[in-house]
Design goal:
heterodimer; A: alpha+beta; 3 helices; about 35% helix; B: alpha/beta
């Protein structure tokens, strides 16, 4: 259900940024490892939320961002192999590491049909619609 | 044609959260978002807190559950300002739900507002509600690996609570292991051990009083 909320928030954001009638082709999103978001679930939620709308064929491109830590004492920045507790200590000493990445949840881009390709795209779209029941 | 954006997906939520935060600050109310598993003792802790602080400070509660108003009813026996939020299938509270529910409270009369989030250690972490602090709550019956398994909650929490300490002799829970995981993930966060059922919540009450006073001080300055 978390993923459905995220998909709905993403669609709201796109409606505001691109406009509800925009001819979207794809959308790029970056997800940090700490967000607890499952890529497959988000893809499923995206399809479910857009089913039957003008954006139902829009592709969702997901990019993952690793958990990244920074040690304020020695300046080292590193990416623990997994978001688990036993990999967070910096070898330089007891200073706690700070979060430098992995909590992202960003819309990176949206791709719209270019004006030249737009006619083709619309043709394909209307013929697909025409083939429907 | 690709249009670059780079904007947080939860921007709309965060904008409403900012409005909430401003409203809370103007009303000088300290707002705590309480996050924990179903059954870890969130409602029981709030009941005990209301009981202890009755007559000293004014407390309000927004309580989120997928269904029923049982928690709302429990809390309403001890607190005049309670709003139950039912999320349906939703696994967390969002800023807009808080905005609508808070509009039903008289914020100016409150010193502390608790938001009891939906029982869940994952989703509520990602949603800013406009709170001053998020508090993560665990209980020993859940197992000693729950802190390590939920690093995001550990990183955003200003305070951690470990409840049901009275059950420690009866369950498989390595207290030292739990503390070690917490320290590795967030060395700065205080961790308080409680037994709500037996009324052992003094460290929590002390923390709350300190934070509340601090917050009142800063909002007066601001």
């Amino acid at each position: 259900m978390h993923e459905l909320s995220i998909a709905e928030a993403l669609i709201d954001l796109l409606r505001r940024r691109a406009g509800p009638e925009a001819k979207l082709v794809s959308v790029g999103v970056r997800i940090g490892a700490l967000q607890g978001i499952d890529g497959q679930c988000l893809q499923f939620a995206w399809q479910a939320a857009l089913s039957g709308t003008n954006w139902q064929d829009v592709r969702l491109d997901l990019e993952s961002a690793p958990w990244t830590l920074h040690c304020p004492a020695c300046g080292r920045t590193w990416q623990p192999a997994a978001a688990i507790a036993d990999q967070t200590a910096c070898p330089c000493g007891p200073t706690p590491a700070t979060l430098a990445g992995g909590d992202e949840l960003d819309l990176l881009f949206y791709e719209v049909q270019t004006p030249a390709a737009s006619g083709v795209g619309e043709g394909v779209y209307s013929s697909t619609k025409g083939d429907g029941p | 044609m690709k249009v670059p954006v780079v904007e947080n997906v939860l921007k709309l939520n965060d904008e409403i959260a900012r409005l909430n935060r401003r409203a809370f600050q103007e009303a000088k109310v300290f707002v705590v978002d309480l996050i924990g598993s179903p059954g870890c003792g969130k409602t029981a802790l709030l009941e005990a807190t209301l009981e202890h602080l009755r007559g000293t400070i004014e407390i309000g509660v927004l309580v989120g559950d997928p269904a029923t108003s049982r928690d709302g009813q429990r809390l309403a026996r001890r607190c005049a300002q309670v709003v139950q939020i039912n999320t349906g299938n939703g696994c967390h509270l969002d800023a807009n739900q808080i905005r609508q529910a808070a509009a039903r409270l008289d914020l100016n009369r409150l010193d502390i507002l608790f938001i009891e989030n939906v029982g869940n250690l994952i989703c509520p972490v990602s949603f800013d509600l406009g709170q001053h602090v998020k508090v993560g709550m665990f209980s020993v019956s859940e197992g000693d690996d729950k802190a390590a398994k939920h690093p995001h909650l550990l990183l955003v929490s200003s305070l951690l609570l470990l409840n049901k300490m009275d059950l420690l002799p009866h369950v498989n829970f390595d207290l030292e292991h739990f503390h070690q995981d917490v320290r590795c993930l967030n060395a700065a966060v205080p961790l308080l051990e409680l037994s709500v059922k037996h009324g052992q919540i003094e460290p929590w009450l002390n923390w709350l009083t300190c934070q509340g006073q601090l917050q009142q001080g800063t909002s007066r300055v601001a």
